DNA sequence: CTGAAAGCGCTAACAA
DNA sequence: TTGTTAGCGCTTTCAG
């Protein structure tokens, strides 16, 4: 049986309200009494029961985070940002992994709500309006994070994908590449962010004015998909004298480079390849991957910051927060004359 | 204002105890009344307040997990295991990242306790007896996970490091390597698991009987450390005709291979290199890394399973649970005649 | 089978 | 400045 406020009160010879006052600093308490209470607390090793506290204050100091899978390094980075700034404001994180299942997302949202979390961050990889509606019904601060699909009307934080893609293509062009292949995936999905990225790419190609672009559609965004598209892509490269491939995700790029490695095509000597995301592996891999940095840590940090602002009734900027991007110029793309 | 048990009771025309009984199935309730209550619950969209529930039942259904950094992929895997089996038993995970600071670990432990978590898993990378003592004082189920250092007398789950290292060395020997360098780090630390790994390596070398072993001590376990030891290691390799390097961690191996890549030494053609851990990158990297698989997911899963067993007063096996290992035979080590 | 009432540990009026 | 008291939303005796 753990020690409660009553025990402290008894030992200090005061009422429980007084004890409450000193631990919360909510009302003036005479120096003498405060000292006695503090002593009693110390002697008993008393720690307030946060559950009881939550019940009366209606503040759990908990923020629910629903993710697809912490095994994805970009999600781990986001969670890192979320946790770290949450911590600064004394919020704890309750983590739930949905593994992409919408029903699970919904169930977890309800579960979190019944645990009285004060806000929810949903990191999803599909588009799931129903869950979003459900969470919005809770009327607690909510941020939706999705690196693949957009969902208008829901607070979110991301990069400007059009601009990012435009800049990367410009960079490639600047390196002397004239024929650049953009590999996308699932671009037919209404809400896919690929739309913007393709547009950015096309705009840069168009601005350059020398060549038309090349588009290839992979089956997905994973390393395997990157590897599997290898044969098609290399064929395309050879037929059209393409010198650079801009992959819509790092994983795709890594998979493609792996395919090249296995088939004795040298990157970047024979072919320049860049990615998008700057996931952890991008800088570890050899050749180091040239890529667009999506600041995952910051995205998480800003997301929870927004929730906390809302909780504190601070002024909120617009619903969609855009974070700055950077082109990470590394080894996988070389300059050609 | 959210709907409470009172609202349900009123709408259903029964007492709150009856409502409680139907939601908990704790006592018989007549079919008719049950139906009415269920209807009311449904109509109001009632969800029990878990905080209030926790207060009276003293069960928070929360398990606290203190980690160093979710950015480490092996930790992400452990957390994945923890979360996934926790979920099966209806436990939620509260995550706290200490970034290796012992004071922070301790503070979080106390914080978690005051949030009434029912158990704690501490994933640490240093040895911190004080924190362990503190947590043990809580008298709640506790598991300590540390891939670098051992702490006797505290429940933990790991692999048998001696055996793992022995097996890997055997495998290298079997590939025809006679001169194998083992690169360690921090082996002088009393509690370091390196002791066991070095012993396993030495035993295999001794059993083989042909050559003495070679030991090199890096400055740490990271990719940078692996890269930085490159010069020394390659010198050692050349001077002694070493053909294989067994690194005590995957990161060290990756760093070393990166060094080789940058210095035009081919792996495995010129030198075989293997790691230890089988972190995510090991199978993505090219060449694919030959390594010892430490089953991080399972370690997390078994750890929380143990906590839940304890919570349910099920029988507990011994304090130290050993999980089976596997040698992942991949590309970075080749057979030599 | 059902309801009234006590109480989990704490905060926050309200009095004094 | 301090104590008394009424809850927060729920579970759980104890009567009936």
Written overview of the protein:
The structure is a homodimer of 337-residue chains. The first copy, chain A, is built from 14 helices and 12 strands. Chain A is elongated and about 90 Å long. The first copy, chain A, is of the alpha/beta class and 337 residues long. In chain A, the strands form 3 sheets. Chain A has a 6-stranded mixed sheet, sandwiched between helices. A 4-stranded parallel sheet of chain A has the order 2-1-3-4, with helices on both faces. Chain A is 47% helix and 17% strand. Chain A has helices at 5-12, 16-24, 31-44, 50-57, 73-88, 102-114, 129-138, 161-174, 194-208, 223-228, 230-240, 250-262, 281-284, 296-311; strands at residues 62-67, 92-97, 119-123, 142-145, 156-159, 180-185, 214-218, 244-247, 272-277, 290-293, 320-323, 326-328. In chain A, α5 (73-88) links the parallel β1 and β2. In chain A, α1 crosses α2 (16-24), α5 runs parallel beside α14 and α6 (102-114) packs parallel to α7 (129-138). The first copy, chain A, has 3 domains: 5-57, lambda repressor-like DNA-binding domains (434 Repressor (Amino-terminal Domain), Orthogonal Bundle); 62-159 and 296-322, Response regulator (Rossmann fold, 3-Layer(aba) Sandwich); 161-293, Response regulator (Rossmann fold). The model of chain A has no long low-confidence stretch (mean pLDDT 95). Chain A binds chain B through residues 47-52, 54-55, 60, 62, 69-71, 73, 76-77, 79-80, 83-84, 87, 92-97, 110-111, 113-116, 223, 254, 257-258, 261-262, 280-281, 284-286, and chain B through 47-52, 54-55, 60, 62, 69-71, 73, 76-77, 79-80, 83-84, 87, 92-97, 110-111, 113-116, 223, 254, 257-258, 261-262, 280-281, 284-286. β2 of chain A pairs antiparallel with β2 (92-97) of chain B. Chain A binds a DNA duplex (16 and 16 nucleotides) through α2 and α4. Chains A, B: InterPro entries: HTH_LacI (IPR000843), LacI/GalR-like_sensor (IPR046335), Lambda_DNA-bd_dom_sf (IPR010982), Peripla_BP_I (IPR028082). Chains A, B: This is PurR family transcriptional regulator.
């Amino acid at each position: 049986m753990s020690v409660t406020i009553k025990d402290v009160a008894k030992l200090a010879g005061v009422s429980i309200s007084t004890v409450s006052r000193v631990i919360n600093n909510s009302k003036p308490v005479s120096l003498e009494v405060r000292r006695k209470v503090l002593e009693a607390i110390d002697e008993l090793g008393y720690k307030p029961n946060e559950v009881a506290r939550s019940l009366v204050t209606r503040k759990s100091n908990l923020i629910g985070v629903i993710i697809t899978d912490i095994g994805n390094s970009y999600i781990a980075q986001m969670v890192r940002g979320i946790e770290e700034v949450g911590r600064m404001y004394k919020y704890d994180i309750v983590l739930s992994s949905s593994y992409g299942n919408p029903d699970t997302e919904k169930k977890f949202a309800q579960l979190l709500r019944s645990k009285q979390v004060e806000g929810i961050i949903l990191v999803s990889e599909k588009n799931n309006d129903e869950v979003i509606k459900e969470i919005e019904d809770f009327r607690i601060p909510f941020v939706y994070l999705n690196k693949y699909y957009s969902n208008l009307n829901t607070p979110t934080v991301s990069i400007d994908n059009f601009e990012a893609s435009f800049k990367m293509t410009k960079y490639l062009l600047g390196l002397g590449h004239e024929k650049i292949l953009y590999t996308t995936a699932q671009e037919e999905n209404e809400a896919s962010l690929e739309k913007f990225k393709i547009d950015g790419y096309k705009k840069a190609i168009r601005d350059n004015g020398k060549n038309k672009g090349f588009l290839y559609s992979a089956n997905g965004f994973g390393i395997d998909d990157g590897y599997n598209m290898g044969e098609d892509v290399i064929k395309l490269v050879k037929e059209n004298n393409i010198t650079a491939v801009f992959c819509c995700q790092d994983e795709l790029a890594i998979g493609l480079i792996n395919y090249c490695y296995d088939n004795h095509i040298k990157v970047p000597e024979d072919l320049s390849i860049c990615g998008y995301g700057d996931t952890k592996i991008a800088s570890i891999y050899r050749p180091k991957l040239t890529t667009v940095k999506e600041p995952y840590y910051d995205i998480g940090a800003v997301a929870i910051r927004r929730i906390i602002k809302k909780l504190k009734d601070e002024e909120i900027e617009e619903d969609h927060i855009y974070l700055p991007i950077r082109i990470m110029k590394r080894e996988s793309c070389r300059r050609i004359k």
